Amino acid sequence: MSTHEHGHGSHDAHGHHDSGHPESTLRGYLIGFGLSVVLTAIPFWLVMTGKLGNNELTTVAILALAAVQIVVHMVYFLHMSPSSEGGWTMLALIFTVVMVVITLAGSLWVMYHMNTNMMPGMDPSQLP
Asked: What does pTM read for this prediction?
């Protein structure tokens, strides 16, 4: 058995490494780039035109599109999938997301309650 017939199951006929990620090609990078541009332009357009007519709804739409863009970057540029590196990469990502959500939610909660529970004499607009 020659060395080309054994032990190289991860290479295709053209000698390219088959990582199980079809997006790791120039075409995949261009698709990722196109999606990133569109997912950046839509929130910009929403804010500049005021199309949704509601600041809260616009904020939710921007956050949703940001989450989609994060996934696009992870899949097309970072090549992350549940099967990469035995799942440890995805587990680290999940842990990071949980920590970021806890930190952001806690910070927003503290800032909101500090703002609503200020002492009546502490109104900054009445300071000299």
From this structure: 0.58
Return d(Cα 106, Cα 112) in angstroms, integer. Answer: 10
- C-alpha to C-alpha distance for 71 and 81, rounded to whole angstroms: 10
The answer to whether the beta carbons of residues 74 and 23 sit under 8 Å apart is: no
Contacts of 18 (CB under 8 A, 6+ apart): 10, 11, 12
CB 94 within 8 A of CB 74: no
CA-based diameter of the chain, in Å?
89
Report the C-alpha gap between 77 and 74 in whole angstroms.
Answer: 6
Query: pLDDT tens digit string along 25-82?
Result: 899 899 999 999 999 999 999 999 999 999 889 988 998 898 889 888 888 888 877 7
Closest to 97 in 3D by CA, of 72, 79, 120, 71: 71
Cα(33)–Cα(75) distance, rounded to whole angstroms? 12
Closest C-alpha to 84, from 21, 32, 31: 21
Question: Reduced to 3 states, what is the DSSP secondary structure of residue 20?
Answer: coil
